[in-house]
Amino acid sequence: MFDFEFLVKDMPRKEISKKIMLFYIMEGRIDFTLVDKTYSMHQNDFIILNVDREYSFRAEGEFLAACFQISYTELCELTKVRPIFLWGNTVVDNNEGCMELKRLIRKLLAEYYSARDKSSLHLMSLYYEVLNVLMTEFLLNKESAQYKEESSRFDSRKQEIIEYIRMNYNKQISLEDLAGYLFLSYAYLSKYIKKTFGMGFSDYLNQVRLEYAVSSLLNTDMPVVRIAMESGFASSAALNKAFKEKYDLTPTEYRRKFFGRKIEKDESEEDEEHIRTQLARYFSTNMGNDASSRKNLTENVTLTNLSKRVLVKNWSKLLNIGTVTDLLQSDFQSHVLMLKEDLHFEYIRIWDLYNEELFVDPNGNDYIFDKLDRVLDFLLNHGLKPYIELQPKPKIIMANQYSILQYRKNPLLSVQREPILRFMKNLMVHLLNRYNSEDVETWFFELWFSEPEEVLLQPNMSHKVMSNDRYLEQYKQIYHIIKDYLPGAKLGGGGFSLRYGEPLLKDMLEKWSKIEEKPDFISLYCYPYTPDTIERSRNQSREFSVIQNSITVLKKLMEEVSFPQVDIHVTEWNFSVSSRNSLNDHCMKGAYLMKTMIDCVDMVDIMGYWTGSDLFASYHDFKAILHGGGGLISKDGIRKPAYYAFDFMNRLGKYMRMKGDNYIITDNGAGNWRIVCHNLKTLDYKYSLMLEDEVRTSEINTLFTDLKKKRFHFDLPGKKGGKYQLRIQSVNQKHGSLQDEWIAMSAPEEVRLEDIKHLKRITTPRLVLKSVTAEEGRILFDVNMEPNEIMFIHVTYQYS
Questions:
Q1: So what's the pLDDT on residue 157?
Q2: Residue 269 — very low, low, confident or very high, per pLDDT cuts 50/70/90?
Q3: Which residues lie below 8 Å from residue 65, measured CB to CB, with a gap of 6+?
Q4: Which of 14, 555, 579, 759 has the fewest C-beta atoms lying within 10 Å of its C-beta?
Q5: Residue 26 to residue 6: CA distance in whole angstroms
Q6: Is 257 or 701 the better-scoring residue by pLDDT?
Q7: Residue 36 in contact with residue 84, Cβ under 8 Å?
Q8: In this structure, what DSSP letter does residue 89 have?
């Protein structure tokens, strides 16, 4: 099922992939052409080919590559997935999944090179690890544009026929055998093969057998009789007949005429010697240098560098809560106050100013702002500042990334620009008459790069978006209205998303950099989905670095167009757009949020989590206390693991001393350490095959690539001989998880008020206290973490 070979010669002639193929460049550089696109591949790049794809490659100088080939049929049978389309190309997208696959490939190659037994169990286990990562990270989602493009070129029945014949060519097989294998009628299959292959079954079978016979004639010393038998021919006479028909020569004459055996053997030995030399050089240079290959379930964290910098807690500055009309409701307000008091958010983002329930007539001239005032007064009276979206933004509740549960249309989506501008002038006059201008200048105003209604209702139509020119024209008009009244007002936009592709965003930034009306900040929407408009197109909710990568791309594009230095706000971010994904209630969500917050330290100025409460996504389709909403707290105000990720991160100290992929170490300058860490687990390919609202709570733990525990060994500076207390708080599936406590109650759809109070009381982190003595001025301790656990550790000196 899984084979590979080393390559040192280019292949300028076009070939067709007969299996799933993966090309990995070990050394050198090649230009790889796949169908009609050419990619410049360098050391450590790889590209994945689906079956029946045309490819070729040319090298510039010496190179060394590994080519892996995987049987499509056997992979389908192994995974119970059909059809299978993979996509991976590090020239286009070098994400977290790519890094993991490259690490595994290097490990496999090193084991193969050093192993005496090429069929060892350890080597075989690495093959299956590679297959697992391929299916986990690179399987295309059936809803994506890339999947549709790949499937349009693929004939699964044709591939099954090819693989069946190539796996059984050396046996006595018949069309009847193949028809039985495929559960097809003899007559239908006979016509299909004739139409698809341009020849009958027997002719195609003999063609395949001849390929293997020719290879044996030119590359081995085997007698013709044995070659005939091993190639599937009934006798040497049958082989002779096939050769005469194809080449007008007997096998013996063919071998003699081309002197192939000696020439090819000499070339083969020369190539093998060349490969051995390059492999020896490669592994002498690269063996043992891959630190990631030595990762295991224990992570040693040693703090020796005493430098420090102020930790800016960008994640706690902004929270999305809902529309203006949502905030008129008392339960929304109580949740806002709870989140503000506990998690210390500074700004609350609201939208939908033009809702008719607010007494705003989009086509009128007079506006009544009473209800808007109630919302703004509520925020200001409780020490919160508004972050106002100015665009007519509808309320949408998503079941999954392709399906909408509720769509509440904003009347201004179909209204001309003039009423919006008229409304904006009246709004600014009203705000200045009601509030101090100095206070309003501390608020934020954002203008979203809005999407046409057909895109909002059909997310897969993301190629239809507002034009950059139209957006900038609207921005300039609103800019002058706001700045004329409030020169110090903070106005920015446009809630950009990379799902439209880098070229559109780069064009926008380039045009924006050349006009006078520059933004005070650039805002970004970040959800883990890859755009349909670029090469890698599938459900990406399993990839945990997408938000960090999106910010990096934005910064790169801003630098490329010489965009002025302005703040960057991620005004919406989450693991999923779905409000019916059970993973939103799981411990994994808390670990994911913690990882993202750690990753994005120092990357942006403000991050606005979407959303604060499950109330936002309450709808008549679900009445249980949990429904897979993206809130930090449930609709009944019960804290979820996602809430505790923010809580633990907020307890970090003033100064950041060290951070890694799974932890961050801080202090307040007095040698008392504050640490957060997590054991986030990766979702496997099975999750890619599901719609997000199809995830069942009972199945969640089967969707991870592993459920291994993790140990951290911390080594921190301390006072020699000093005694320290460790105060460790953690949330995992045994402690502090609302979802697991609810399941333990048999997951009732309806609960009593006293049950809600009970759940509020018991869904709290576990607390463990330990004492350690600093030996030779070092504080040494271990913590063990369950899968998807999050943890806060406070290390304090004990005075005596």
A1: 81
A2: low
A3: 6, 7, 8, 23, 24, 25, 26, 28, 30
A4: 14
A5: 10
A6: 701
A7: no
A8: B
